[in-house]
């Protein structure tokens, strides 16, 4: 029930360029993922400055009319990229309509979450971004909850509590579920398949593996894990192309690992 191979087989013919659909500012940016290695360290990220070199730190609504191509041909990988990365930051856009249509048809979806880091004691920020990767369309949707009024479209929330939908995650722990509860988002935990343990078993490691190591060894995909992006301001009104690509690939790689191992 978890292997709609017909939905995924078309992906094997794609090249290593992911198209990002989003607002006009993305089209004018022209930022490639290679440039992320030289991303300026903003003062917002100063709490992480003590960790030194940022370049290789591994981890433990817009319309669809404007887009840019993020060149990832330099990366060493065999896993195909998603056909499209769609940013959803308004309920009244074609991007949101497309997402809702996919949510009503889905039987498998991979999920990931981002929020503004809780830098200080007592800080507890809600989820700012939810990423959803679908196998049949080969799309990843990046939902900016601030632009959506802090809530999910009804079709998406229904999908997440539908017992017939398999929800795939990686290393989802009590912290993620606490953030979901804080953000008033419900996921049917009995439908959740967390693939971290399966990846660790495949890698032959007794300790939990990171998404980055699983992607590199199992999928031969070099997944960027830069703390300047991991701990960036996910609540900003306009995400950068680098943030969008980073967020989308976490969900996409999780989906690919699921089909590889399950």
Topology:
Blueprint (H helix, E strand, L loop, with lengths): L4 H5 L7 E6 L1 H6 L36 E6 L12 E5 L5 H12 L2 E8 L11 E8 L4 E6 L9 H7 L5 E4 L4 H9 L9 E3 L1 H8 L7 H8 L8 H4 L10 H21 L1
Parallel strand pairs: 1-3, 3-6, 4-7, 7-8
Antiparallel strand pairs: 1-2, 4-5, 5-6
Helix pairs in contact: 3-4, 6-7, 7-9
Describe the structure.
The protein has 262 residues and is an alpha/beta fold. It has helices at residues 5-9, 24-29, 94-105, 154-160, 174-182, 196-203, 211-218, 227-230, 241-261; strands spanning 17-22, 66-71, 84-88, 108-115, 127-134, 139-144, 166-169, 192-194. The chain has an eight-stranded mixed beta sheet with strand order 2-1-3-6-5-4-7-8, with helices on both faces. β7, α5 and β8 (192-194) form a beta-alpha-beta unit. 37% of the residues are buried.
What descriptive keywords fit this protein?
single chain, 262 residues, alpha/beta, eight-stranded mixed beta sheet, globular
The number of helices is 9
Q: Low-confidence spans: pLDDT under 50, at least 5 residues?
A: 1-6, 9-17, 23-77
Strand content: 15-25%
How large, in whole angstroms, is the Cα Rg?
A: 17 Å
């Amino acid at each position: 029930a978890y292997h709609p191979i017909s939905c995924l087989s078309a992906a094997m013919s794609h090249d290593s360029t992911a198209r990002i659909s989003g607002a006009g500012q993305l089209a004018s940016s022209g930022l490639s993922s290679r440039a992320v290695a030289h991303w300026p360290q903003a003062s917002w990220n100063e709490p992480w400055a003590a960790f030194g070199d940022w370049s290789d730190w591994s981890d433990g609504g817009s319309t669809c009319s404007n887009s840019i191509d993020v060149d990832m041909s330099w990366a060493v990988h065999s896993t195909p990229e998603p056909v499209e990365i769609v940013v959803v930051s308004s309920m009244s856009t074609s991007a949101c309509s497309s997402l809702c249509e996919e949510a009503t048809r889905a039987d498998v979806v991979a999920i990931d979450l981002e929020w503004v880091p809780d830098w200080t004691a007592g800080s507890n920020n809600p989820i700012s971004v939810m990423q959803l990767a679908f196998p049949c369309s080969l799309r990843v949707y990046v939902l900016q909850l601030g632009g959506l009024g802090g809530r999910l479209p009804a079709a998406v929330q229904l999908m997440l509590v539908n017992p017939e939908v398999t929800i795939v995650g990686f290393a989802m722990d009590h912290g993620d579920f606490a953030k979901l509860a804080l953000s008033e988002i419900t996921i049917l935990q009995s439908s959740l398949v967390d693939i971290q343990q399966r990846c660790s078993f495949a890698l032959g490691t007794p300790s939990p593996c990171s998404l980055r190591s699983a992607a590199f060894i199992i999928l031969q995909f070099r997944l960027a894990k830069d703390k300047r992006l991991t701990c960036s301001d996910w609540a900003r009104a306009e995400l950068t192309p680098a943030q969008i690509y980073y967020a989308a690939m976490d969900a996409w790689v999780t989906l690919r690992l699921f089909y590889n191992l399950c």
